Description:
Layout: H1 8-11, E1 21-24, H2 27-42, H3 50-71, H4 81-108, H5 113-138, H6 143-166, E2 168-171, H7 177-194, E3 202-205, E4 208-211, H8 212-241, H9 246-251, H10 254-268, H11 271-276, H12 278-301, H13 314-329, H14 336-366, H15 378-385
Parallel strand pairs: 1-2
Antiparallel strand pairs: 3-4
Helix pairs in contact: 2-4, 3-4, 3-5, 4-5, 4-7, 5-6, 5-7, 5-12, 6-8, 6-12, 10-12, 10-13, 12-14, 13-14
Amino acid sequence: MASVYFSKEELARIGSVKGGVTIDKSLMYYYVISPLCARLVSITPSWIAPNVLTVGGLVSNLIALALVAIYIPNFVEVAPSWVYYALATCVLVYMLLDNMDGKQSVKTGSSSPLGELLDHGCDSVNVSLLNIFVAAALRTGPRYPLLAFTLGVIVFYLPHWQEYFTHFLELGYVNGPTEVECLAIGMLAATGFFGSDFWLNPITIGGFTLKTNDWVLYSGLFGTVLTIFQTLYVGSRLAVKKGHSLTSAYVQLIPLLIFWIFSYAWVQNSLDLFDRYPKTFLVGLNLVFSYLVVNCIIQRICNLPYRTFYAPLLPLILVSVHKLLSVHYGITLASDEQVLMGFFGLYLVFFIHFAVSVATGFCNHLNIHFWTIPYPNKGTKTKKAD
């Protein structure tokens, strides 16, 4: 049985090329997170499927999103200290489960291309969520998570773009996802301990006086921009080394460019609406972005030609054009609120259907189950042998 989004012939190519090589040089991951997760996996029952851990991590961050929506809806409210501790705990649970699923798959002998796809797919959904949590704790207002998300999607997409044509992914010593997540956990926990007013205190550095949260913002943006250029540079070198022209490599960035341009145009012309519904905007746009990331991974796993345009980008293009026509020519087919809620609802339903369809297609082709693994499996056999 084929997925609605991919033919039987395309799914039959799953695993036709060697899997990508990921080298995580992160010192925090190597010395702290990886050993901790290895210990946790050693006491995790072998009947728990890796996909359960992956989805569990996503659910943890969705719980955190609900807390922000209730207690810090506009990114300026002061929440009870337990809320910030809960947010830190949710992100910690997500980070641990996100690192445990791969080790659990090795332990149980249940590694599969679907597991890799699900892992990175859930990571892509969390691009906006982490920004939302930190902005809520730092009381930055809605514009900070928008700016962070705008750059964050580039930082997240580029390594997968690089891996598509090089089958190689290298993460830095101190600027990888592990460090970002640990910093977020630390800031959330610190907010619970010191109170959110701490981030509003002025600090003078080099003759410049800014609020603490502004210093955090500018430092984060500086590091993000450096990471973008570093990844582009490394990806370009690897592309040439693998025999790809830079033109063919950069053409593969067209889907991200389309997403970025039309997202920016829509939000830039709807800032008043964004200030009222920031989470709806961010999560809705993140669903579109996650769709692009999942497709990028599928094309690598199935050895498919890279697509430069996807039909599901059309609603984003249409809402952006509709807003431009409304601003410059007074042509309005629906209110801004109706357009935003319609866009969000459409993409939420579409992405759920897309995810379920792709997972079903992979499971049917690979003859595996999503929520369970064969019993007894490699882990249980090893345990009995011991």
